[in-house]
Design goal:
Elements: H1 3-10, H2 13-31, H3 34-65, H4 73-105, H5 110-140
Helix pairs in contact: 1-3, 2-3, 2-5, 3-4, 4-5
Length: about 170
């Protein structure tokens, strides 16, 4: 398994963890369950760790990807730039979640406001997660590239898009 393959295996985790973390955090806020909030903090910390792994394999993945014919270096650079912002946000989210987790165990006054700060930062990180995921997907998946129309009718094996597209000549 080379770094490109490893990157493709782990790169979805930093995107999934904030989604799951926000859901659990909202449950914790609405149920006023400190244990549930702690679980969400732990998930955000795991998200930061997986983001480190994804970023660590990214450079090697870039080196391997540029050797594949037909891949755009501009798209790879765009993905790298957005991913760096997303990674930085997940690192900050992980650190703040660690502080919130410790504050929660110590029953500190910070733990009263921490879920809201963590939640806002998680939503911002999730915005960049979507951008990182989309730009990463655009590298190999031409059908999702912005500004380009993908003709599914001419895609191998699909046939006409609908019955109205059939032409009886």
């Amino acid at each position: 398994m080379d770094e490109l393959h490893l990157h493709l295996v782990v790169n979805h985790l930093p995107i999934i963890f904030p989604i799951v973390g926000i859901i659990i955090l909202l449950i914790g806020i609405f149920t006023k369950s400190e244990v549930t909030k702690r679980n969400s903090y732990f998930i955000f910390i795991l998200g930061a760790i997986t983001s480190m792994v994804a970023m660590g394999t990214g450079e090697g993945a870039e080196d391997s990807a540029t050797k594949i014919a037909g891949l755009s270096e501009n798209l790879i650079k765009k993905h790298e730039e957005v991913s760096e912002i997303f990674a930085a946000l997940t690192y900050v989210l992980g650190i703040i979640s660690l502080v919130a987790l410790i504050a929660s165990f110590r029953n500190s006054v910070i733990s009263k406001y921490a879920p809201f700060l963590v939640g806002i930062l998680a939503v911002v990180a999730l915005f960049f997660a979507q951008k990182a995921g989309t730009t990463g997907g655009e590298i190999r998946h031409t059908e999702i590239r912005t500004g380009q129309e993908f003709d599914y009718r001419n895609y191998e094996g699909n046939g006409p898009a609908s019955k109205s597209d059939k032409h009886d000549d």
